[in-house]
Structure formats: C-alpha cells, structure tokens
UniProtKB/TrEMBL annotation:
PANTHER family associated with the record: TRANSCRIPTIONAL REGULATOR, MARR FAMILY, TRANSCRIPTIONAL REGULATORY PROTEIN
Protein name in UniProt: Winged helix-turn-helix transcriptional regulator
Entry keywords, A to Z: Coiled coil, DNA-binding, Transcription, Transcription regulation
Recorded coiled-coil stretches: 111-138
Pfam families from the UniProt entry: HxlR
Domain HTH hxlR-type: 10-109
Gene3D superfamilies xrefs: Winged helix-like DNA-binding domain superfamily/Winged helix DNA-binding domain (1.10.10.10)
Organism: Olivibacter oleidegradans
Alphabetical list of InterPro entries matching this protein: HTH_HxlR, WH-like_DNA-bd_sf, WH_DNA-bd_sf
Amino acid sequence: MKTIERRSTCPINYSVEIFGDKWMLLLLRDLMFNGKNSFLEFRASDEKISSAVLTEKLNILLNEGIVSKVTSPKNASKFLYLLTEKGIELVPFMVEFLNWGSKYNPDGGPKSLLERIKKNKKKAITELQDKLRSQQHAYTENRINAF
C-alpha cells in the first residue's frame, strides 16, 4: 500500500497531500452525497476514474483512516467503503465546496441537498453526518451479528 510522504508538519500541507487532487474530492462526493460505496459504483461515476487510480486513492483513504472497508452483507466477495468518523468530519468542508461550485456552475449539483443547505446549512450538515454515521453503524452491526 502506498503511503504519503509528508513534506512538512503544516496542517494545510497535510490536508493538501491527502485531498490535493480531483479524485479524492470526487470520491468523497460520491461517498457523502451520491450514496456510492463500492468499487464498481465509484468506477461508474461520470468522471471515469481508472481502476488503478481508484485502487490507489481508496488505499490512501483507508491508510489515513478516512474510510473503512467492510464485506458486503449481500455479497461476501464484494467490499464496501464507508466513511469513518474522521471522514464524516469532512462533511462541512465538502458542503462548502458544493455550495461554491453550485454558485458558479448552477447547472450541476444535487438540487434537493442544495435547497436544504440554503434553507438551513447547519441542519443539513448535521442530518447528512447523522445519516453517514447510521450507515457506518448499520454495517458494523451486521458484521458483529454475523459472528
């Protein structure tokens, strides 16, 4: 697995080294806003990430503790990627990215989420984080109950 070589201890540098390319932000988008969790779902995104790049980026997210990898309860040969608490803490950041992007590119974005954000950003963020925590908890419970 590829590890990130840190250039410095600067917090901004740390963030840029993890999220400083388009693929990481698009993977977070798919996990947070589009309900995607599997390798094939990520590959089916409009941006057409290659399998090699996707594997590399998922491994970085795993190594950094931003996602966890669990076996699908429906198919034991399929893995799902879920945001950890560390990843869920990125929701406010991604909401701001979504907001900014929708302001200057109004043709895109999840309309219902954007409307909820405009109405009450803090509530929309909390609801999204709670939904992601519930998802993580449900898969964790399924794994525990399987034993």
